[in-house]
Amino acid sequence: MALSAALKFGLLPQAAQRAWLAEQPRDRLDQMVRGDWWWIGRPEQFAPAGNWLVWLILSGRGWGKTRTGAEWLVNQIMRHPLDALGHRTEWLVIAETLNDARTVCIEGNGGIISVLARLGLVQGRDFKYEKSPRLMIRFNTGQLIYFLGADDPDVGRGFNAAGCWIDEMAKFRYTWNAWFEGILPSLRAPLIDDHPRTVVTTTPKPIKLLLHWNHTTDGTIKVTRGSTFDNRANLSPYVLAELERIYAGTSVGRQELHGVLLEEIEGALWKHSQIEADRVKRAPELVDVLVAMDPASTGTEDECGLIALGRGEDDHDYVLEDWSGPVSGHAAAIKAWELVNHVGASRLVVEDNVAKLWLVTVLRDAYLEMRKSGIFPPGGEPPIKPVTARHGKRLRAEPIASRYEQHRVHHVGAFPELEDQQCTWVPSISTDSPDRVDALVYAGLHVVGKERRIATIAVPSTTRTLAGISSPY
Length: 473
Known about the structure:
Strand content: 15-25%
Number of helices: 17
Low-confidence stretches: 452-473
CATH topology of the largest domain: Rossmann fold
CATH superfamily of the largest domain: P-loop containing nucleotide triphosphate hydrolases
Mean pLDDT: 88
Shape: elongated
Largest sheet: 8 strands, mixed
Helix content: 25-40%
CATH architecture of the largest domain: 3-Layer(aba) Sandwich
Distance between the termini: 77 Å
CATH class of the largest domain: Alpha Beta
Strand order of the largest sheet: 3-4-5-2-6-7-1-8
Number of strands: 16
């Protein structure tokens, strides 16, 4: 285990300690007394060398991720007061929620205000901590730190950031789209003798973006791995002993305590490698297409699940679109019918347990509204198909997961948020499945249910198949 300079110093004989201290200048002794980062930080908590874009810190709880992120960001701010155009630099801190950004990244014991205070910066004199109209720190030099919650895939969009600290990214609802469509394009300030960089401090989970970064070998991603026990000197020995007793030898312990990025989660019904192996660029000729909807009122995520699924001539299923998102009510109904129109679906599948309460009415009104505008043809009832949930969510999901195992389900392109939900939901831990998974399961069950209604007639002679019904003629 690597030790901080302070801990190494503590291991020296007293005579050697006195001799070394006598050689140090006064300002260095002052830094040691106030606990500067060079003195108390462990070697792995300092940024790696190289021209990297992302420093990915995957570590167990208590390793010191928050302090590391805060120290790195403040150091970058001090190094880059101006960009190459002479503008004051602005910076981003993104946590799972805005409340996490406030309580952990700003006000926590290892947060930014603690680091600024140690450096002698006084709140109200050297910087202002503003909570309204938006959460930010404004330095008297003109530099800004914006704090954001990752509650939508556009987080970070529109900024001109010189750098970013992302905390607990594995817990975000959106990761892939948030990074590539929101955060990464915002890292565009032209720095002097450097470029915008990002530090990501997170307990690992096998989500698509972290797996992608973990396998990137071109030098743009630097990965630091660490265990809770690396910070043993600063943690309660009683708590550590209890954690070791409970989690020793388990996959949860490897992930949560030792910071190991497991390629697959034990107990999850789907695997990333399985989905990846059967992914296709385009679907074959489809004999049926439907859209399934799980409204935002159910599931572990406050989203409306919207999945388009097609049945191919090969009797395989093809996931065509994932339009899920944080919408509800009339807006969700409009979005559902827009997806139906986009993929040419024959019907919209919804769970009737929820639909009996409000959804069918809202969907019918939205359909009639869109019919008046010419999007749907006149006449007939809206093509809504309720499905009844007779079993728990695990029992419902297992037949669909089995079709994946049989290589009979293919994703047409990539759906990172859906795939992350599939591969991180463990029914034995959480009986409430995410909304995207629910919508996928509704779609799959409806298609499988239609299979069961196909009649097969066979005689011991040559047969041919018409419209799914076998006949000797």
